[in-house]
Every structure is written in structure tokens, then in C-alpha cells.
Amino acid sequence: MKNNKLSVLFCLLFVLSTNLSAQHKRDHQQRHEKVKAYQISFLTKELELEVAEAEKFWPLFREYDQLKDAMRKAYYQRYKRMDDSLDFLTEKKAAELLGDQQQLEMNMLHQKNAKLTEIENIIGAKKTLQLLHLEHRFRKELLNKMRKKNPEKKKN
Q1: What radius of gyration do the chain's Cα atoms show?
Q2: What is the pLDDT of residues 18-52, one digit of tens each?
Q3: From CA 85, how far away is CA 20, in angstroms rounded?
Q4: Are the C-beta atoms of residues 131 and 60 closer than 8 Å to each other?
Q5: Residues with Cβ < 8 Å from 105, sequence gap 6 or more?
Q6: Which of 9, 92, 128, 155 could form a cystine bridge with 120, CB 3.0-4.6 A?
């Protein structure tokens, strides 16, 4: 009887934790989609693209944005894995990993620059430079908006 109650309790805890995890992923995805929509709205308003430019720009921008997200994710996953093993690395292995890291960063920069060149060919150098500036401004505005929403998380 006692084992049955424990089994039921463990099953309940498992189901609850699975549901909470799934809910967290859905919430995260919804927030991510809201941020992307806000970003598109912000850039649309600020860049003032002509119709012909916009038709070519937005698909390319989505590719560029997805590339940046994928690179950022790969970069941080790599550092997360490295954090756990830094104390146990030999100097030789550390030098190898450092070389790999530098190569990864060079590849990331090359891919980003290639996309920016494609964007420049569509909207011109001035608007591409403006895009880079607007991306920075967007991140600042988003952080300010988040800080206003959650003032207790604000760093002093």
C-alpha cells in the first residue's frame, strides 16, 4: 500500500514537472515571438524602406537574424560546456580549444559580413549602416522596456 502511494506520488510529480517545463518553453517561445515582432515593427518604422527594397530586404534580414541567433546559441553552448571542464584542461588541450574558438569566431564574422554585403546590395550602404545602428538601439530600448516592467531586477 505504501509503495503504491509512493508510485502515484512520483508519477504525479513527474507529470507536473513535465507540464511546467512544457509551459516554460511555450512562454519563452511566445516572448521570443513578441520580441521579434517588436523588432520588425521598430526596424520598419525607422528604416523607411521603399516597397521594392522591403520585398527583397525582409527575407534576407530573417536569414541574417536567424544566422545571428544560431551563432549566438552555438557560442554560448560552447562556453557552457567549457565552464565545467576548464579546471581539468591541459595546456595543450586549452591551446587547441582556443584555436577552435578563434576559428569559430572568424567563421561567424565571415558569415555575418557576407549577409551584410547582400543586404547592402539591396538597400545600400547608408541604410545598412543605419540597420546596424538600429539593431543596437533596439536592444537598448528593449532592455529599458524590460527594466521598467521589472524594476526589482534592475541593476544599480
Answers
A1: 22
A2: 555 556 667 778 888 888 888 888 898 899 988 98
A3: 30
A4: no
A5: 75
A6: 128
Are the C-beta atoms of 128 and 120 separated by less than 8 Å? Answer: yes
Residue 64: partners with Cβ closer than 8 Å, 6 or more residues away: 112, 115, 116, 119
Amino acid identity of residue 10, one-letter, is: F
Q: What is the DSSP string of 38-57?
A: HHHHHHHHHH---HHHHHHH
For position 11, what pLDDT does the model report?
A: 53
CA dist 32 and 72 (Å) reads 15
* pLDDT score of 156: 47
Burial 54-90, CB ≥16 within 10 A → b, else e: eeebeebbeebbeeeeebeeeeeeeeeeeeeeeeeee
DSSP code for 88: G
C-alpha cell, 117:
554585403
Dihedral angle computed from the Cα positions of residues 128, 131, 135 and 137, in that order, rounded to the nearest 10 degrees: 130
Instruction: Provide the pLDDT for residue 32.
Output: 82
